């Protein structure tokens, strides 16, 4: 059976060149970067080379890149590290409701630790309004964290404008750019952010390597204590092969960024256009300001899980809700925060394209998906409508 | 301990929140960059530095000018005198 992977926001396949770059460090070049003899120095050089490439991808200085094991760790590090470093200046943090769990749950941890947290609302298309940020700032605010783009609805946030508002009050800004780095231009200087999280497996690198950009001069309390790795800011023997892979993937992404966007955007638009013709299917997120390979919808009267199963039976692998909340089978908090009713949010589905997809894959999807919807509606006990469908129908954003 | 005020450093190294032995590694690294007679300021919150930095200066022949204690961290001043 045909197998079509349309869940690239969950993870991406490793590029062969990246694997090749990693292999020596999984085999003969196994040295610990802290060792002073030849083996160690080779590993150390490899890490510093990767750091330069990752820095190049986001227009940072190499010293501003701290490697972590995951995007989630980078997000935890940013929120907890800055809140603790700044707690004598104030104990108030702003995060958007669109954030990934690793940001939201870090914020909840801070709340339990005596910080006040304001959860910023988003509009129907998932945008955080810089004016709302401005109004939410208090004398106590020390940190603002807003995602660069949500992997669930694909909306790219106005980070530059949020930074502008924050800088008037000298407040540190973090952005979770895990979904964007390597997929759209990400420039820490142009965005003006103080901290930025990224993960290698989102741009065809390996799992287990990620990074936090920390603007030079900004103090951050470590999350992990131990040795002097990463200038004493993140202890633990480095995952050398994965970091080398991240560097290689960053180097390739930097050169291929435009090619990738030009390849993905027409396929994405084809899916969105095709689905706009299907009754009671609504695009979630913004039509223009969205991730290049990202098409997400709410399908009325159907559960996301049911669609995933039927699509999987046809060899199409996709996601519902945020990639990791689909097992929870509850309405996605991101969709609820956009004002979509909990019943409509049950029917969420996300198709995310990657460089391994082809126009034929998209043809197959746009042919099969409406049939899946039709079949599920025929057997759905809700086919006559959810209890509160009118509310949902009105609040969903796409029919303009 | 010798306390000083209003020392004008030529170079500042901010290693607050960085763990031992970063205070000594950074110190050594920065001192290499300095010219004779220039002053290095090290900002750290590591208590061990209270003993280690003066001791390092004695050992290497650089002049320990003194320290300043602010609310959140210490500032150490070292003048490069060793060749």
Automatic annotation (TrEMBL), chain B:
UPF0033 domain mapped to chain residues: 14-80
Q: What highest taxon heads this organism's lineage?
A: Bacteria
Q: Which Gene3D superfamilies match?
A: TusA-like domain (3.30.110.40)
InterPro entries xrefs? TusA-like (IPR001455), TusA-like_sf (IPR036868)
Q: Which family does it belong to?
A: Belongs to the sulfur carrier protein TusA family.
- PANTHER family in UniProt: SULFUR CARRIER PROTEIN YEDF-RELATED
Q: Which protein, by its recorded name, is this?
A: SirA-like domain-containing protein
């Amino acid at each position: 059976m045909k197998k079509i992977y349309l869940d690239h926001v969950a993870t991406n396949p490793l590029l062969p060149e990246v694997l090749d770059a990693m292999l020596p460090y999984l085999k003969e070049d196994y040295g610990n970067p802290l060792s002073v003899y030849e083996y160690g120095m080779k590993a150390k050089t490899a890490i510093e080379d990767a750091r330069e490439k990752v820095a190049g991808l986001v227009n940072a200085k190499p010293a501003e890149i701290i490697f972590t094991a995951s995007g989630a760790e980078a997000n935890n590090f940013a929120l907890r590290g800055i809140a603790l470093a700044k707690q004598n200046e104030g104990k108030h943090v702003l995060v958007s409701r669109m954030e990934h769990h690793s940001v939201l749950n870090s914020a909840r941890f801070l709340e339990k630790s005596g910080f006040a947290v304001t959860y910023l609302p988003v509009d129907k298309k998932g945008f955080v309004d810089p004016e709302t940020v401005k109004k939410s700032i208090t004398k106590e605010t020390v940190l603002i964290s807003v995602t660069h783009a949500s992997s669930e609805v694909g909306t790219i946030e106005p980070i530059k404008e949020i930074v502008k508002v924050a800088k008037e009050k000298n407040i540190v800004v973090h952005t979770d750019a895990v979904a964007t780095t390597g997929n759209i231009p990400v420039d820490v200087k142009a965005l003006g952010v103080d901290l930025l999280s990224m993960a290698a497996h989102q741009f065809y690198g390996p799992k287990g390597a990620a990074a936090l950009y920390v603007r030079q001069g900004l103090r951050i309390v470590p999350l992990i204590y131990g040795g002097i790795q990463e200038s004493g800011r993140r202890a633990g023997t480095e995952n050398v092969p994965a970091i080398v892979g991240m560097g290689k993937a960053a180097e390739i992404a930097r050169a291929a960024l435009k090619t990738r966007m030009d390849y993905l955007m027409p396929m994405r638009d084809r899916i969105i256009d095709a689905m706009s013709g299907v009754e009671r299917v609504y695009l979630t997120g913004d039509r223009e300001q969205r991730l290049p390979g990202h098409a997400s919808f709410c399908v009325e009267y159907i559960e996301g899980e049911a669609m995933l199963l039927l699509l999987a039976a046809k060899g199409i692998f996709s996601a519902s809700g945020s990639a990791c909340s689909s097992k929870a089978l509850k309405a996605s908090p991101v969709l609820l925060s956009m004002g979509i009713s909990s019943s409509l949010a049950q029917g969420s589905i996300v198709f995310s394209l990657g460089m391994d997809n082809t126009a034929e894959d998209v043809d197959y999807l746009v042919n099969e998906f409406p049939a899946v919807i039709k079949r599920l509606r025929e057997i759905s006990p809700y086919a006559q409508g959810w209890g509160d469908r009118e509310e949902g129908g009105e609040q969903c954003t796409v029919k303009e | 301990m010798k306390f000083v005020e209003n020392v004008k450093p030529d170079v500042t190294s901010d290693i607050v929140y960085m763990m031992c032995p970063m205070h000594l590694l950074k110190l050594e690294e920065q001192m290499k960059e300095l010219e004779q007679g220039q002053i290095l300021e090290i900002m750290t919150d590591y208590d061990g530095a209270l003993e280690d930095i003066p001791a390092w200066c004695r050992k290497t022949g650089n002049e320990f000018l003194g320290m300043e204690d602010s609310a959140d961290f210490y500032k150490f001043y070292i003048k490069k005198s060793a060749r």
